[in-house]
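Before relying on records like the one below, remember that each one covers exactly one chain. Contacts with other chains, cofactors or solvent are not represented anywhere in the record.
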Amino acid sequence: MQKLNNRYLEAAFSYLSSEPEFNLFFIGDLEAFGMEHENVSCYTDDEWMPDMEFPYFILNYRGNILVYSRDEAYDAEKVAEYLNEMDPENISGKDDIVKKLVPYLKNRVCKPTYLARLNQVGEEEKERYGGIMKQVRRLTEEDIPAAYDLYMTIDEFAYTYQRKAKEKCYDDIRQNVSVCGRTYGIFEGDLLASIVQTSAENKTSAMIVGVATRPEMRGKGYAKAAILKMCQDCLEEMDFLCLFFDNPAAGRIYHSVGFEDMGLYTMIRKA
C-alpha cells in the first residue's frame, strides 16, 4: 500500500463525491483533518499513479477503517491482507464493497445496517413533539461524564466502551461533542435521559450517531424529540443528514422524521 498526502485531497474528494451518503465519513474526516493529521491516514494500491483513478481508497480514523471502491471487482484479497496486518477494531463501508473483504479477513463478524438520508424534517412531527423539543439542549464537554454513564446502560455501546479505558471513551465522545460534530440531549433532573450525536460534519452533510435512551426512561418521546431538534438545527446549515438503523422499530421512527432508505452499509468488527 502507498500512503497518500494532502497533494491528493482534491482527487480523493472527486473520487468519493459520486456516492456522498455512503462516503460521508470519508468526506467529513478529510475535510476536518486532511491526510497528514495524527487522527487520519489514507492509503491506496502501491501501483496507483496520480494520473489514474483510485482502484480503492482506505482511510484510517483513530484505528477505525473505511474502505471504498467504485469498482466492485477491486482487489479485495490484497486489501484484506493489508487490514489483517493492521488488525483494526472496525472496518466499514458500503455493503457491496466491504462484504468482498469478508472471505479474506480473520476472526471477524459482519453487521449490515440500513443507511438512510434526510433532506427536510416533517412539519407534522415537529408540531407533535414541539413541547418535548423545548427540553432538548446542546451538550458541552462538561456533559461528557453524563453521556458516558448513559451509554454504559446500553448493551451495544457498553460492549465497545468496556474494551477501552474510560479516558479513551471520554475522548471518543468529545470528538462528537466539539470536534467533528455536536451532541444534544434531554435531562431528567441531573440524569441524562436521552442523547443523540452527529459525526463527520462537513460543509454539506453530517452523520447522526449514538442515539440512546436510558432503558427506564423509554416511551416518553425523548429520543424522537432530540433527533428532531438536532435535525432541524443541522439542516439550517447543511444539505442533508444520514444515519444507520438495523431494526424495523428504529426504521419506523426515522422514516416518520423524513429519512429515506439509501441501501446497506456494513461494519466488520472483531469476533
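The first strand starts at residue 2 and ends at 3.
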